[in-house]
Amino acid sequence: MTIQDTMISMGRQAREASRIMAALGTGEKNAALQAIAEAIDGARAAIAEANAKDLAAGRDNGLDAALLDRLELTQSRIDGMIEGLQQVAALPDPVGEISDMSYRPSGIQVGKMRVPLGVIGIIYESRPNVTAEAASLCLKSGNAAILRGGSEAIHSNQAIADCIRQGLAKVGLPETAVQVVATTDRAAVGALITMPEYVDVVVPRGGKGLIERISRDATVTVIKHLDGICHVYLDDDAAADKALAIAVNAKTHRYGTCNTMETLLVAESRAAELLPPIAEQMRAKGVELRGCEQSRAIVSDMLAATDEDWSTEYLAPILAVKVVAGLDEAIAHINQWSSQHTDAIVTENYTKSRRFLREVDSSSVMVNASTRFADGFEYGLGAEIGISTDKIHARGPVGLEGLTSQKYIVLGDGHIRQ
Amino acid sequence: MTIQDTMISMGRQAREASRIMAALGTGEKNAALQAIAEAIDGARAAIAEANAKDLAAGRDNGLDAALLDRLELTQSRIDGMIEGLQQVAALPDPVGEISDMSYRPSGIQVGKMRVPLGVIGIIYESRPNVTAEAASLCLKSGNAAILRGGSEAIHSNQAIADCIRQGLAKVGLPETAVQVVATTDRAAVGALITMPEYVDVVVPRGGKGLIERISRDATVTVIKHLDGICHVYLDDDAAADKALAIAVNAKTHRYGTCNTMETLLVAESRAAELLPPIAEQMRAKGVELRGCEQSRAIVSDMLAATDEDWSTEYLAPILAVKVVAGLDEAIAHINQWSSQHTDAIVTENYTKSRRFLREVDSSSVMVNASTRFADGFEYGLGAEIGISTDKIHARGPVGLEGLTSQKYIVLGDGHIRQ
User: Fold this and answer.
1) What is the C-alpha to C-alpha distance for residues B114 and B125, in angstroms, rounded to an integer?
2) Which reactions is this enzyme annotated as catalysing (chains A, B) (predicted)?
3) A410 → closest Cβ in B102, B242, B366
4) Given a cut of 80, is residue A321 above it in pLDDT?
5) Quick check: B242 contacting A, CB < 8 Å?
6) Element (H or E) spanning B138, and its range?
7) What is the pLDDT of residues A3-36, one digit of tens each?
8) What is the CATH number of domain A3-223+397-410?
């Protein structure tokens, strides 16, 4: 069988399983999640052994320390997978939720019912715990899943896949409801993203290169998360203490996350007051500052920023700084350079806060809060399969609801159209 | 300039205009709609003249009577365009609507704001009144639009486009907010559906061939409506009068519409009672019946149905009929053969109605109502840009809300992440 054939066969089985998954009750899905958690708990030794193989191969192949760290399944990370499964079991079930049922003049009652998407393909890189996490979200939302992890984690992923199959089988569900691709051949990804008859949506999780490649080649809908070039704008009417706290938190709370601020915008009227203390705190934390001419006139040891800085996701202790005339220029800068992930204003002005919320076209727009809050857990989604920087279907943090859709339901009593 | 260049330039202008449109107030958008309606009213002679050119060309090119009828802009159809614009002006504005604002344990308040998608591409066939209709829906939902009508309606579409430009200019909005492609070259469509940097979503309206071609080639998201193979299932527990009325209405109210029933499923226990009177009424209306073996044993003058009948959208006075064992077989048949447009059950049984609603995976699922109700106006959307048989983003009738998305908004008082 070619890889293409294998993937089509997996797709067909996933499609069949998806019909069973869609009709399941909440209790059945939660029992499956619990059974998978127990299977993982009972297979700690096997998982550790498989993970050791991946780690050894990774070291042989010269993976760097950060990648090896992401790859490692310590006992506490295995605990984390088990807890994650239990947390997803505890989340409300979105499937079957009925809303907006209203009567129409014709006499019919019309509303919407939330339903699973069907089959979700997830493509991810090194972290093998994503296998359990992605499986749990797809399962709870009533979908079937085809998971394709990174080749460097193949043994770990297969060990976790064994546990998922055991858990599904234990509660009488089809093992094909969650399939983990067993080959490391890249052709499997190519097939997965080009079979819309079997796969309803693909969620790539990983570096920008992976996501761009998948978006370009996919014929299946992609829920994608490209970069996070996030801004904080300190308005003329910013409260100084909030401005300082939010700027420092948004940049330095963590450097490698997508909701970290990469560019700080400051209103001209406040730059001389606000930039020096911010620069001082940034300097104390080892953050390199790259500023426009006006900001360098205030804080002289900044490097000169270029257009490339406005469009770079540093994921590092580097911050671009720009002085703007006011709200209009701030919004224009953001709508030109932002990756439409998360942008925040610090202001005490009612009208300007309303304008910023309305006119900034990003998946999360904030007033007087750190961009670091843009996160499924912080938003109360319970879990997150990714953060979408797209506008179609799902925007911002994607939880269980993002893996569902709504159909119309119509209730009548023999109504016919006149 | 090549057509590719022309389209890119239109796309860039649309993207710029979309930022202005997104920030408009409801009153400004309604004023634009009113100004366009007045411009059309004042240009009746010019529109009629342009339409006469298209009709003459159509006759020369041997268009059939049905196509010529769709192409014609009578005075009453021009009235209809004007009323349509006024109706869209009267609809609630979806943009800026804030929902689900709740406080999180961290102290931030999180919710969603409805926002325009950005730039909508609409590709449609012969009916030139779609130009005004599509423009009005895109405008009211705060989007910019690029419209590409059928080549046979090019003069009519351009005359309407003139009115749209006049209306936009009169209220001080950019004329590039609604652009109507002036060339009949097919390369324009190819360009429009492959520039995701300028176009956020494409809505094709027309025959299955057009939609399949666009879906295959598009890199922009497509809200598509393929065929309408709709079913009515008469359950063991159907009330006979409702079964008869709904079956006859769903098939014979109109033959050429996508929400017309194409296959009737009847529970075995009721077939002998229900099929003869239905067949009699269908016969009286000139509907050709094509049945499975069991139904032909009851109504002897039916033709024999083949698998092709289960998968055909007749759009004609033809009905496929199948006797099924009961609810399970009905659902299985529908989930196998339905185009996931609209399917209905007729039953008095509570549990079976709940199962049908939950397990039939179609964009509209109905109990005791005619499939002919699946329509944006009947559902109270006020207007409809199309009916989506997809699951992603929008399902079923797509109104103003389907041309929008939701972003997260976060309100804080200086909150930082711990």
Assistant:
1) 30
2) L-glutamate 5-semialdehyde + phosphate + NADP(+) = L-glutamyl 5-phosphate + NADPH + H(+)
3) B366
4) yes
5) yes
6) helix B129-140
7) 999 999 999 999 999 999 999 999 999 999 999 9
8) 3.40.605.10
